[in-house]
Design goal:
Blueprint: H1 3-11, E1 15-16, E2 21-22, E3 29-35, E4 40-45, H2 55-67, E5 74-79, H3 85-101, E6 105-109, E7 125-132, E8 135-142, H4 149-159, E9 164-167, H5 172-181, E10 185-188, H6 194-202
Parallel strand pairs: 4-5, 6-9, 9-10
Antiparallel strand pairs: 1-2, 3-4, 6-7, 7-8
């Protein structure tokens, strides 16, 4: 089975939540161009309607499925005939750039942006950084107030391909689950501000 066939098979498992049919059967993905030597995959996606309420969600599901296919290294996906296509295409390009050039890092923080000094699963926010050469871009997302372990895992898995979680304090049990079960590196910082913690992480030997 060639790479394109593997991608099509993967996309057959992605269903439109409203229509209960896969995106291949619905012909929502098309114009495939696959470079097997370089792992480059280009294709287009068109939601079922221009104002499809799950267009963004479906686009991210599709991209995620393609990215997980062994042999795929880069995905160029263009969205067409969608009211938010410009914004979505820009976001997809940003994701691809971050994956190529950056290392996704989450920092457990409090509401003021300081590194959380208690158990990281009680943190109010997780600031996500990507390193581009000499500067960092940040995105902020909050968890449910109870801060349960499952919420952290859901956040980490959905927001980005997090490689490292920086926190000030973490139990041995939590650290073992993140590292062994979810494949996330845990970096325990001795600093209490984001800037200092990031500097400590990036300057580590």
């Amino acid at each position: 089975m060639n790479l394109k066939d593997k991608i099509i098979e993967a996309l057959k498992k992605v269903e439109d939540p409203e229509l209960r049919q896969d995106v291949v059967s619905l012909k929502l993905v098309y114009d495939f161009n696959v470079d097997e030597d370089n792992g480059l995959v280009q294709f287009k996606f068109m939601p079922t309607t221009p104002d499809c309420p799950i267009g963004v969600q479906l686009a991210l599901m599709i991209r995620g499925a393609v990215k997980e296919v062994p042999g795929v290294k880069k995905v160029i996906m263009r969205v067409e005939n969608f009211i938010y296509q410009d914004q979505l295409n820009g976001y997809l390009e940003e994701i691809e750039k971050e994956e190529e050039e950056g290392e996704h890092i989450a920092i457990a923080t409090d509401r003021n942006g300081n590194v959380w000094t208690k158990e990281c699963n009680k943190a109010e926010f997780y600031m996500v950084y990507t390193k581009y050469g000499n500067f960092l871009s940040a995105r902020e997302n909050s968890l449910l107030k109870d801060g349960t372990f499952d919420n952290i895992v859901k956040f980490v898995n959905l927001l980005a391909d997090i490689k490292t979680l920086i926190c000030f304090n973490i139990s041995d049990e939590m650290k073992e689950k993140l590292e062994n079960h979810y494949g996330i590196n845990v970096f325990v910082t001795t600093k209490k501000t984001q800037k200092e913690a990031l500097a400590e992480f990036f300057n580590r030997k």
